[in-house]
Design a protein that fits this description.
Elements (H helix, E strand, L loop, with lengths): L2 E6 L4 H10 L5 E7 L2 H11 L5 E4 L7 H8 L3 E4 L10 H9 L2 E4 L4 H5 L5 H7 L2 E4 L3 H13 L3 E12 L8 H8 L5 E6 L2 E6 L5 E5 L2 E7 L3 H9 L5 E6 L4 H15 L10 H8 L10 E11 L4 E10 L6 H15 L7 E4 L6 H6 L6 E8 L2
Parallel strand pairs: 1-2, 1-4, 2-3, 4-5, 5-6, 6-15, 7-12
Antiparallel strand pairs: 7-13, 8-9, 10-11, 11-12, 13-14, 14-16
Helix pairs in contact: 1-12, 3-4, 7-9, 7-12, 8-11
Length: 370
Amino acid sequence: MSLRVLLIGASGVFGSRIARQLAGDPRFRLTLAGRRLASLAALRESLGDPSVRLATLDVAATGLAEALAALRPQLVIHAAGPFQAQDYRVAEACLACGSDYVDLADGRDFVGGIGRLDGQARAAGRLLVSGASTVPAFSSAVVDALLPRFRALETIEHAISPGNRTPRGDATVAAILGYCGRPLRLWRDGRWQRGHGWMSTRRQAFPFGRRWVGLCDVPDLELFPPRYPGVRGVAFRAGLELRRLHFGTLAAAWLVRLGLIRDLARQAPRLRRVSEWFIGAGSDVGGMVVELAGRDMQGKPLRLRWSLSAAAGDGPQIPATPAVVLARKLAEGVLSAQGAMPCMGLFTLDEALAALDNFAVGTQLDVLTA
């Protein structure tokens, strides 16, 4: 029988891409959910699948558990961010109605805190997964794939940079602005130190050229040190293709750090519209890199750089893919994990890349000189 999937935030940048992957697949009975029925109806029409159902749903409204129970999902995919200010009411409502749960959160505290529901999820025989996105899901899959090459892994530094013409939503912009200029904990030199969001800016090599990137507060910073024992440093950076936008964001981060702006995330809709003044500049090419350093099996220094590039505006497909992979594995009955956990170790890098076969995505692995 087909898996009943409820996709919350279906009309958003990432939700709509997940919908296109699941619609028309006989493994799923898909329901699109969100606050605006008109947007959902337009999405369904574009999918060309009249069997897709629609449901108006506001995750912040009262009666969420009852609303989910009435829809009878077997899997809820929560793509309605930003998650930094959310609680676990959607995951708890899934437990109440007997559904599995997957979200696309990239908030450090949100993803790291999902384990508080682990006991309840195990008792109910359900799977609650947080962070099925670029970080920590995709990034940890890359590290896991390369880890066997190392006797001792010492540092993990990874970064992303979207193409300027790539679609952006208010939730994504708000998530970034929420930590700009604010203190963040960094695992550096084998101990916790302090950095600040969007700062420590540097030039990062990508397959398509060098771009500016700055520090970001993501779940990997908290989750990777215990997951990869012996690692002495973990850093994640992100940047914008256009210098004027990247350094404009850096200037705003300094205003936050100096106490001149208190809540930059509230300006996300306005700043997103400003960024779209320049939508014709730059490119539709983005990607990510994961750089690992340590000792190989012979004890010699080893530095690897794994890179992914996405053209034709397919960059947003990367954070959308982990949820698609998990949904397919659940539908096929090959994912038996239970409990509440961050999205790490639930699929392999090969499985993720196979799900990207039909997109303008390429990868490469380079051995770097010391």
